[in-house]
Write a structure and sequence with these properties.
By secondary structure, the protein is α/β, with parallel strands linked by helices. Helices cover 41% and strands 17% of the residues. The strands form 2 sheets. The chain has a 7-stranded mixed β-sheet with strand order 4-3-2-5-6-9-7, sandwiched between helices.
């Protein structure tokens, strides 16, 4: 985007010291309190960058870059511009040599990803969000981004995110499965959700006790009659709040909507489709 050639940036990034050396120099030990698990295998980070496709016109938002393994791969992969939000001051310092190598294509923001305003930082698209998310804030982050997708057309062309496998299971779950819930419904309403691949704990430093999954989100085009995010949240919160009860009981004051939509009241929340929940939300707003 800034006129610097992809080849020039790739060469400069490739010449940087190995990530383990960067970690040692800056005493950048992963901190459990920050949900940090560093991904140092460049074969894996390069694979994630390739999965994103053509990034040359995009501003890519990355959360929690740590020592910058995925950041390096995004830059080598031709990202037009990368904004990396990092809470840990040690990691911010460790990333400065990468900022120099990126020749204007990388901006590191020292701050809290939960408070970062993507629309204010990147008022004009196109945007992608690609990140190995800190485990402790992954779910609230993705819910916030899904809400922005509903409220702002074109918020992100794609999200490619790494989660603990149990979160990925919930995102991709289908009806009649124990992992199917509010997160499944909201994510699949707004996006085509694809589990790209799983990674063992051994791929990370330090290795977590659970496996991780890379999940791809491709925004759907919603119709003019699409309900608000708030309406879908209201209906799913009520239905799954008492998921073992039948809908006519769990929905409480919203139970009359079942008759309006033709959805059986003797079913449980985990037994009805994403489309059924959207119909209920539409009826709520009507």
């Amino acid at each position: 985007m800034n006129g610097v050639s992809d080849y020039s940036v790739a060469q400069a990034v490739a010449a940087l010291p190995p990530l383990r050396e960067v970690i040692a120099t800056h005493e950048l030990r992963a901190t459990k309190a920050l949900g940090q698990n560093f991904l140092l295998d460049m074969n894996i980070t390069d694979k994630i960058a390739r999965q994103a496709g053509d990034m040359s016109r995009h501003t890519v938002i990355e959360i929690g870059p740590g020592p910058g393994g995925l950041t390096r791969s995004l830059l080598k992969g031709g990202a037009g511009h990368v904004i990396a939000i990092e809470f840990d001051a040690r990691a911010v310092a460790a990333l400065q040599s990468l900022v120099d190598a990126a020749q204007g294509r990388l901006q590191v923001v020292h701050g809290d990803a939960m408070a970062f305003d993507i629309l204010a930082a990147v008022p004009q698209g196109p945007r992608m969000i690609i990140a190995n998310l800190p485990y402790n804030i992954a779910t609230p982050l993705v819910i916030g981004w899904l809400k922005l997708m509903r409220e702002h057309a074109g918020f992100a062309d794609r999200m490619l995110l790494m989660f603990q496998r149990e979160v990925a299971d919930r995102l991709a779950a289908v009806p009649d499965h124990k992992n199917y819930g509010r997160l499944s419904v909201v994510a699949q309403w707004l996006c085509t959700v694809k589990r790209a691949y799983d990674l063992p704990g051994s791929a990370f430093t330090p290795p977590p006790k659970v496996a991780s999954s890379v999940v791809e989100f491709s925004p759907r085009v919603l119709g003019d009659d699409a309900p608000s995010f708030a309406a879908v949240e209201t209906i799913t919160a009520a239905a799954f709040g008492q998921r073992r009860k039948m809908l006519r009981s769990s929905l409480g004051e919203y139970a009359p909507l079942l008759e309006k939509t033709g959805i059986r009241g003797d079913l449980r929340a985990e037994q009805i489709t994403v489309n059924d929940f959207i119909r209920l939300a539409q009826a709520l707003e009507a």
